[in-house]
Structure formats: C-alpha cells, structure tokens
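Homework help board

Subject: predicted structure for assignment chain

Our instructor gave us this sequence and asked us to write out the predicted structure in token form, then describe one feature. I got the tokens but I'm not sure how to describe them. Can anyone check?
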Amino acid sequence: MNLERIKSIPALKTAILLVDVQNSEIDNEHKEKYPWYYQQIMEVCLPNMKEILEIGRSFGIEIIYTTIESLTSDGRDRSLDHKLSNIFIPKNSYLGKVIDDVAPEEDDILLKKTSSGVFNSTNIDYILRNLQINYLVIMGMLTDQCIDMAIRDAADKGYYVICINDACTTHTKQRHDNALNAFKGYCTIMNTKLFIQKIKGQILIKKKKKKYFVLFLENNLNSNSKIDNKKLILNQIEPISLTTLITTDLIGITRGRSIPTSEVDKYYEIGCGWVPANSALTPQNEIVDSNPWGSQGDLRLLPDKNSRVRINNGPDPKSTPFDYIHCDIIETNGNQWNYCPRTLLKNEIQFYLENLGMKINVSFEHEFTLFDQKQNLISQPSFSLRAQRQQNQFASWLISSLQTANVQPEMFLPEFGQNQYEITCYPSDPLTAADRAVNIREITRDIARQMDLNVTFSPLTSINSVSNGVHLHISIDDLHGKSLFYDKDRPYNLSLIGEYWSAGILHHLGSLCALTAPTPVSYLRLKPHRWSCTYACLGYRNRETALRICPTIDFGQKSVDKQFNLEYRPMDGTSSPHLSLLSILYAGRFGIENKLKLKSIINSDLNQLNENELLTENILSIPQNLNDALDNLNNNKQLLDYFLKLFIENYISIKQKELSLTNHLDQQELCQHYSKIY
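My token output:
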C-alpha cells in the first residue's frame, strides 16, 4: 500500500492503537541493556505519541491501548510462546500500566493481551467493527514484533493501516529500519509531522454520540459540496487539555497562565508573558503601591520541563487533567530575573556546590486541616486509625496523585488536631524539594476540591485549634556523599560544620521568622506548649526548639550518618517554599563562613527554665509578632547583604501592607481570614 492509496483519513472511522507502551519497557533493566531503545522511547516516541493523541482526541478519534499483562496472578493464561520466552507481566502489575506520559483517559479503551498479536489474544477486531472503524493508526513497541504482527493482521482483516514510524521503536535502529522495510507493503508509513498535516488539512462533519464535530481533514470538500462556503456550525464542542505555567510568589501563592497542552513544546523555548508587579501582591490581592515596577516592564515565565506535573484523573470523573509546570521568571532578553525566588534558590544551591563543595538534602513535611463543605466532619481521636479511615478515600487518592507527580510521599498520617493530617516525603535536592512542597499543597487542594472537601494549610483554623506547621528537614553531604553534619565523636553527633551551620540559623532566626512564618496568624502558632517553637536554640529531639537534632535508629539497612538531619520548625504553610529555603541556606552559609559556635544544645523542657537560666544558656525568645520579625529583618545588615536591596525592600513593603489590611481583625478573625486564603 503506497501513500496515494490513502487519500483521506476520515477521523470518525479511524482509531489510534498504542501497542505495549507500558512501564515494563522503561524499567532499569531496559535502560541499562538497551540504552538506544530507552532513549528513543523517552526522547522521540513518547513526545510524538503525545502529540498524536492530543490531535486525535481533539478530532474525536477513538484511542485504544493494548498492553502485555496476564489475566491471572501466576500467568497461566499466557500464550505458549510467552511461557517459553519467559515473558510475564503479572495481573495488576505496575509494569503492565501504560506509561504516565501517554496514559489513557477515562473513556479510552484498554485491552490486555498475553501474546505478541493483539488480534490473536484480544477481541479488538470485534470492537473495531462495532465502532465502524476502517482505518487503524498504529504506534508503540516493538517495531519488529508486536507492531509487525498488529499491522499484518489488521491489513489481512481488511483495515487501512497507518504506521507512525517515529512513534515506534525496537531494541536497535537496524532492527527498527529492517522491520519498517519488511511490512511496508501492508500499510502506509508516515511520520508524526506528516500525519498531523493530513489530519489538519481536511474537513469532515459527522454525527457521533449525538454530538456534531467539525473535523478539518485533507481537501475532501469541492465546489459541489453542500456545505456553504466553509460556514460551518459547531453544535457542541469537547474540552481540550490545558497546561498551566506556574510560579510560586513571595507570599507562597501559586499563580500562572494556561496554554493548550498540544502547544506546550513551543513554550519550553519561549515561555509566556508575566508582569513584574505580580511579585508585589499581598495575600489580600492588593498590589503594593511602593513596589519597584509599578505598571511598567514585562517578563517571561520559562517552564522547567523536568518539573512538570500531570495527573490525568482523580476522584471526580468530570475533572480535567491537573497539568502544570514550574517556571523560572526571566527577562525578555532571556537573562535571569533577579527577583525570582526559584532562580535565586538555584543560584544558592550552585554556590554551596561550587564554593563549599556541599550537596544539600531537603524534605518538607506539611500539616493541614480538612473540612467538609459544612465544616462539620466528625472529630476522631488524635493519631487514631478511625481518623485515618474517616479520610481513607481522600488519603488513597492523594498518595496516588503525589506518586504520579513524583513527589515521593513517605506517609499520610492523622495528627493531634481535629481533622488534622500530615504528609511527609523523602528527601531530594533543594530545588526539587521546594517544587515538591508546592506540589503537596496544590495537589492536596485539588483532590479536596474534587471530593467536595475544604483544606487549609494555615497555621491556625481557630484560636483554640491545634496548629499546622511545615517542618523542614535538612542534611548536607560532601561531593562524595559523606555526611558533613554527622560526627560520632562529638556531642549529640553534631559535627563542627553542623555546629557552624546551626549557629548561623540561630544567629539570624529573628529575621528568618519574617520569611518562614510570614503572616500575622503565624505568631498565634509560635507559642509555648504548641510543639511549634518559642525559643531560638538547638534542641536534641526537642520539639519546642527552633532547630532540632532529629532521632536516628541503630537498626535497619540505613546507617546512622545517612539518617542524621536537622529540622527547622518555625515555618508554616503561608510561606513561600523557595524563598524560605533560600533564606535558611543564606543563614546557614553565614554560620559556616564565619565559623559561629553554639553555646549549648538543649536537652530539657524549655518551659521549665526561668529567665536567668535562659539567659545563662543564651536562649532568646523568637519574635512575638510579624511586625517585630520584620524589624529584625530590616535591621539585619549581615543577612540583608545576601539579598538584593530592592528584593527585600519589596518583600517588607508587601508584609507591612498586609499588616495594615489585617490590623483591625481580632485573633479569631485572623484565623478565619487566613484559613480561607491558605
């Protein structure tokens, strides 16, 4: 069959078939054994498949997937060839699932097969004829095995077959090329670009599922057409997939602009427009008059493709995919914008690496409170199984979504407070950790929205409630992976470098609070007996201290030095993860560069010490309110030297404006006000 034999591609008689595009093909074994194959899948085939799926769905083309997966847990239903070849993907295995990048949508068709030929071990022929499909577009793996069989069998059964040659692959390029040459007589072979050109170039109108679609397909209309001069009426349209380019600003609110997902590749190169004054917004949605930019200037949000989050489905079947990409804010000439907290964090990570020879490991823990729409969820005992089970559906959807987003959640747990829960995740590099902190907040909010729940990360939901915090865990290694915070021969195993770093944090803690506990309600949480922190000191396994040496265990496979980390506690969900982490790294670096020493490490109940005992140990209270914290920051020349002058002036102006907008609220009203925002 040559190209001319397919003069048009009638979309409503066409199906796209993805063959064996599953996790088993991109596991570590394939990556190491067949590097060309793995690279071809990740860098060529998957992007092309995504593009074809996007255009296909927009034209109402049926999407069908087939994957190798047994119908039984022991694989007894496999074909003889698969048994002899030891090809076995167990029932419900992760390896049998479609790769996330091209995952099926809710109404797509998924067929499990236990042989090489999809027409041999599934009812695909029966399904295609029921759908009145005559044209089959095939892509997937392996070109010389399952793709070959699908093409030959489909052609023999009377289907017009199109093979997308740059959306198929096999273990070597030679095998791929040989296969294409071998089965070219059974199909039309074209690349992704040509296929899309043919689809976009034609017009066809046909009724499908009681909906009318206008489909632009190649030159099927002529002067005798009954359609009047392209005056086409679209009775009903389908929603398209959107991807949002996001930035999380100085006040910890994630903002952005959405684009058609099908066009995302061009935005990786050029980004989308942004406005400098957006970085002068208060939580109350007012732009500070004294900001450095006013109405002038233009910027770009440049997406970081490694940070993309796409969750195709959730508890609400009507909800569209949750798809966004973290961005750096840049100038229109492509230079970095020196007021972007994400960019500044990247620069500081690089400074630690290149100038100090240090690699940083970070994880954020988030506490939050759930409400139903009437805010009357039944209160369950603290930390209880009943509290866990009350939100079992929410917890399951949340953990699944966080795993899909590569947040690497560690656990979901009921907390001390009424309807209070916590998400912890595994450590990563600082930039990934800060992005993940944003992901935890936004994915939690979206799952709650889909389940008709309300969620808040605000420090207090009411004046008498248990507080929500964010706990930042941090450790530092040298370039060879050796822990620089751990020393088994020093008190509490804290190394000299760890002492310097900790002393830098405590030296600047009064100022750091303005950035990590950045709202008036934050200071209603930072009180004695709330297990948050009240004093600027380092404690050994002590939850009332601002900085804590975390516990380690002497059993299991992970050595003590790899477990050893410090926890920064005066932080909450009203802060910007990127800005908070940046400022903490600045303060820690100050301690290292100036070799600051600790006076003591606290291993007692601070609330039992009198004023003289606190002074003797050089233990000072943290600021009592946001205004005091801002004064600390504004007068701290040592820390301010790390920031651009206009950056910190703008931040302080935002917070002062925020105080002026909320100073009329009493404590309970403050709690309610910030619970709605965060």
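Reply (TA_rk): Your tokens look well-formed. For the description, you could write something like this. Residues 63 and 188 are 19 Å apart (CA to CA). That's the kind of observation they're looking for.
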